[in-house]
């Protein structure tokens, strides 16, 4: 294995970064095409899940299905163990690709993969050896479910490792805007996983069999991701590590990890507070409204798969115009799409809620929904400046903003929820989202205003 202790070579350039050769136009086309593929990649598993879930619930039974959902939650929390290497690999890989530096791109991927593997393998190992303790001492499960759950947790740790590795191996696809390949792989394997679980249950393999299938499909997806990435970047088959990349990758990834952790707290805390200060029924009204309002973020989320690598490529350009132009175009396009989507949701919300969930929800959830739509509108708009800040190496700005929000937000949520129930929780969440969005837009404007031609940090130190 080659270890590169030299400073990265920044002398290699590519004419593709010249904004005057049509590169920006190609990026815009790739951005639109990638977003459409991302929407399709999210829609296919969603449809499959809507079809398969009723069968899984009946075949597993309520308690075992609850255990399966719990395992998914635990694995979701373990996802923090990758310390943000998927985003870090995409950012630094996109910059190397924009310069035409293939060796550097390979070094970024392999170095990020090694950094990622250490905490991920440790987390998987701890889950495997502590599964009995978790089941017997932390979870209040019936005796008949304890052994199957212990086995399922141990199996799921293997699938977790495979999925984490895939998050780094997809870098060549994302930086080349081959979102079609990325979404084809992830969507097909996710649909296969969702569709085959009922078959496994029909064969009598129970909860451990279902988790084994999920883990095996995650392993196959990682292998397929590696094969496709190797075709796009043939030199990837030759492992290359760069010592000088370790610090910037960890620094950047840690900032992304903090954003994810704090966002998790800010996104879900109001639900817990609402139960504490109002009632479970108020939470039900709020949850239905929140689920529908969050549909506004599907488009910004799909856009992000292409937007982040696009910004990362453009920010190494010596010309300011390309990055500023794409930023402006994305903001304007997203503004129009979100406005139309929000108007559509608000117009049809009450008849839909009444038909889908019942007259009670049509009556009690509609006001929280209107309020949450406003908050989700601003949250969706903030995706563009957020990814700009991350692409130019300033994710810590977002971390500071969100960390400063936690205490005021919790106090505001408790006060409003105790007085106004679901409506109060919706007001608290939306006010936080609006303020956060406006501050992030202000910071992004400052970054663009002070943007200089010496963008690239030649020592690979993240500011």
Automatic annotation (TrEMBL):
Q: Which Pfam families match?
A: Polysacc_synt_3
- The record's principal subcellular location, in a coarse class, is membrane
Q: Where are the transmembrane segments?
A: 36-59, 65-85, 106-130, 209-228, 249-268, 333-353, 365-389, 409-431, 437-456
InterPro entries assigned to the protein according to its UniProt record, in alphabetical order = Poly_Biosynth_Transport
* KW Transferase (keyword) present: no
Query: Where found in the cell?
Result: Cell membrane
- Transferase recorded as keyword: no
Keywords, comma-separated and alphabetical: Cell membrane, Membrane, Transmembrane, Transmembrane helix
- Chain residue ranges for the region called Disordered: 1-24
Per UniProt, the ranges with Polar residues bias are 1-17
Membrane topology, as annotated, equals:
Multi-pass membrane protein
- The name on file for this protein is Flippase
